[in-house]
Amino acid sequence: MKTIKKISIVFGLSLLAFNCSSDDDNTEMMVVEPDFSGTYVQKDQMGRPAVNTVFVSAASKDAFNVTIPSEQNAAFQSMFQTNLEALSPAYGNDGDKNALQLDAATFTGLLATDVLNVSLDGTTTFYDGDNVLTGRNLTDDVITVELLLIFGGETFMENPELSNDNVDANDKTFLTSFPYLASPW
C-alpha cells in the first residue's frame, strides 16, 4: 500500500513538473477586445464639485444625473434657486447678488448646468479674482470659492463662518509633471 502511495505521489509530481514547463514560447497570445455591448447608464454628474450634492434634492438625484447638461438649466434651475435662497442668508433680500454680481436666478442658472468650463486660450482656473469658472487647477480651492459665491454676498464678506472650508492646502505637494498628483501615502 505504501508503494502505491509513493508511486502515485511521484507520478503526480512528474505530471505537475511536465505541465509547468517554461517552454511556452510557441503559445499564441489571444487578444481579447473590450466588450462594449449592453446598456450603459450614467449614474452621477459632478462637473462642479459639491454643486449636485448641495442643490439637487434627494428625490431628484437620479433625474438630474441622467439629464444632459444642455437641458439641466430648464429642468432644475428653479429647484437650485429655491434651495440657494433657503440655504444662504446672503440671498435673503430681493436684489441680493454675489461677488460676481449675479442674482439668485442668474447664479443658479449657471450652477444648474453642471459642467466644468475650460478656457482654450486663456487662464485656466476656478476663480483667481479675475477669471471665473474658466477651468480648474489642482491648486484651486474649489470648495472655498463655491462657499464664497454661495454665502459671501457681494463682497465675499457676508457670513464668514460659512464661507471657508478651512482646508488651505493639499496634504502633499503636487508633482511638476504628469500625472501631477502626488503618490498616495
From TrEMBL:
Source organism, top-level taxon: Bacteria
Record-linked InterPro entries: DUF4331 (IPR025566)
One Pfam family named in its UniProt record: DUF4331
Keyword hit for Signal: yes
Signal peptide: 1-22
Keywords assigned: Signal
Name of the protein: DUF4331 family protein
Organism expressing this protein natively: Algibacter miyuki
